[in-house]
């Protein structure tokens, strides 16, 4: 079942009881009745049995998707991107440069990608309707390149993982109550790296004019009314991630957190390489391996932080695929930066990446 949460703004919710996925659709409708259709975080194969009928009823089918917007790189929201772009040959992908660096591994056509950084003032304007949307960074919440999108017409702010939550509200429906905050708090304390990143994102939201009437996260309940300001205030005061770590050796613990975050992303996105890496580090005995690994995660370091990180870099540098090597080094760098860990890693040529996507022709849709 889908719901309209704002003018021409719809949500399709997955059926899980404890941790919902939300797929959103915005129709940018012109005076002549034609529309440009934006699909947000299109989900996984598990969503297809509901997603296809949803698209048929709202926009006449998957072929009429014009823009796919990805808030970040996680597979629970990006896995359907390739099949949708194939089924909608006129569609474009819009996402941040950091997200594109990872989702391009799906084999997506680079000439049909536009990075959010390339839009003037982060605004996307539509010619025929005169409507516009704004890209709002949510850096490090929980991904370096996380991006939100604000629809001025409906005053709906799509936030991706930010403001998302585990389901702690009882009852039917899609809208948050005060009971939803517990699940939002738990989700953010588990997955957001630091309070500074959260506060910065809350500040960016508070500066939107007009102020959002609805917050539409990728997980959990849709937030509207007085709860928008209420939950943002609570979020601004919430301790998350590294702020909750209290250990005798905080520097080593931070490195363990960063490595395990990196391992998790590798396991999800590059499973075969991750398996090879775990086997590589478990070959030696207790005196030669740099880590104590339990259930494919680092329990503690056996060497200095710099040396442990160097072992990971050395393994990555042994990979023959240069694109994969660059992507993995970038992911590792992101996780270290999120936790303010100082370590010299090879620089990624982000300017070269950005220039390679600036030549996309988008004039038939926007001005």
TrEMBL record:
Q: Which GO-annotated molecular functions does the record name?
A: kinase activity
Every copy of the ODP domain together lies at: 35-220
Please tell me whether the keyword Kinase is annotated for this protein.
Answer: yes
Q: Which UniProt keywords apply?
A: Kinase, Transferase
- Extract the InterPro entries matched here: ODP_dom, RibonucZ/Hydroxyglut_hydro
Q: Which Gene3D superfamilies does the record match to this protein?
A: Ribonuclease Z/Hydroxyacylglutathione hydrolase-like (3.60.15.10)
Determine if Transferase is one of this entry's keywords. Answer: yes
| Alphabetical list of SUPFAM superfamilies matching this protein | Metallo-hydrolase/oxidoreductase (SSF56281)
| A Pfam family | ODP
PANTHER family in the record:
HYDROLASE, METALLO-BETA-LACTAMASE SUPERFAMILY, METALLO-BETA-LACTAMASE DOMAIN-CONTAINING PROTEIN
Q: What is this protein called?
A: Eukaryotic-like serine/threonine-protein kinase
Q: Which organism is it from?
A: Thermotomaculum hydrothermale
């Amino acid at each position: 079942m889908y719901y309209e949460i704002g003018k021409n703004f719809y949500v399709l919710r997955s059926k899980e009881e404890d941790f919902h996925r939300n797929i959103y659709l915005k129709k940018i409708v012109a005076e002549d009745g034609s529309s440009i259709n934006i699909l947000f975080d299109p989900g996984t194969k598990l969503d297809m049995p509901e997603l296809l009928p949803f698209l048929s009823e709202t926009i006449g089918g998957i072929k009429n998707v014009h823009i796919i917007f990805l808030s970040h790189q996680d597979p629970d929201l990006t896995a359907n991107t390739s099949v949708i772009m194939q089924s909608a040959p006129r569609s474009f992908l819009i996402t941040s440069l950091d997200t594109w660096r990872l989702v391009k591994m799906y084999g997506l056509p680079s000439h049909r990608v536009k990075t959010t950084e390339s839009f003037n003032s982060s605004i996307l304007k539509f010619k025929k309707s005169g409507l516009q949307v704004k890209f709002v960074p949510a850096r490090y919440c929980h991904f370096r390149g996380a991006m939100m999108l604000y629809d001025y017409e409906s005053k709906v702010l799509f936030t991706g993982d930010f403001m998302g939550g585990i389901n702690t509200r009882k009852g039917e429906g899609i809208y948050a109550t005060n009971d939803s905050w517990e699940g939002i708090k738990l989700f953010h304390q588990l997955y957001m790296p630091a309070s500074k990143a959260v506060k910065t994102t809350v500040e960016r939201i508070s500066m939107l004019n007009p102020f959002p009437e609805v917050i539409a996260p990728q997980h959990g309940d849709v937030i509207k009314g007085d709860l928008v300001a209420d939950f943002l205030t609570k979020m601004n005061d919430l301790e998350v991630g590294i702020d909750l770590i209290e250990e005798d050796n905080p520097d080593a613990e931070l490195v363990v957190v960063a490595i395990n975050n990196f391992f998790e992303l590798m396991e999800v996105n590059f499973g075969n390489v991750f398996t090879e890496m775990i086997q590589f580090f478990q070959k030696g005995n207790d005196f030669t391996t740099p880590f104590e690994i339990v259930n494919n995660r680092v329990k503690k370091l056996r060497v200095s932080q710099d040396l442990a990180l160097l072992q990971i870099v050395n393994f990555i540098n042994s990979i023959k695929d240069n694109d994969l090597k660059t992507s993995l080094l970038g992911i590792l760098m992101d996780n270290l930066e999120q936790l303010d860990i100082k370590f010299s890693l090879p620089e990624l040529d982000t300017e070269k990446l950005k220039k390679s996507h600036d030549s996309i022709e988008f004039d038939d849709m926007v001005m």
